[in-house]
Input
Amino acid sequence: MSSKRLFQSVAEQISELIDAGAFPPGTRLPGERELAERLNVSRVTIREAEIALQAVGRLEIKTGSGVYVSEKKPEVAATLPNASAFEVTEARLLVESETAALAAHNITDAAIERLGELIEQMRTGDEQAANDADEQFHATIAEASNNAAMIHTVNSLWRMREDIEEVKATYEAVCVHDAETRTEEHEAIFFALRDRDPSAARNAMREHFHRLIEAMLDATERMAMEELQAKASKSRERFAAASKIA
Output
């Protein structure tokens, strides 16, 4: 897969069509099937691109009505905060647990089916595909909450996860070791949402992030130890070199 994910490329194409006047502000976009045929991609990719464009204010997804071009000009993306991986994950725990509970009340059969497809994608053994599925899994739950503030917040937190270098490095250090566990946790969230059980959905999401925080602590400790060992090794080399000169 290229460094630019397919849905991001499609999102750019839709944005260009909007800027060119093909889809004026306030108008309804063509359906997923029509856009998929027009852009030669799957309907799933169109859906992912639309979610991404909603997160930045270019589109508005109205449940039961369709997808509309925003009448307001999107604001320039705010500068990301100087947040640590623990702060981002703590915020995700608090926000996404309640988002999952709200989604359990509102989720559609189509969204549940989509979540099931994403879990299968996590099992393929393809690390990039699994990471993409992880992102879309959380975005789909946010979308199912039918709460614009929740959707924006969840997408903003994911942007921090991906675009703050220290946060991204910590997540990568953790996720490379826990693919099977991560999939099982997402499956527990899926089952709770499928049962339309808000309490179970909230608890499953909390368990997912609690375990992730513990794994981050272990990874941080491991990275600190590796850094210390590397410094000690360099000191030994300098000492050995100095001894030879003496």
Notes: The two ends are 55 Å apart (CA to CA). The chain has a mean pLDDT of 85.
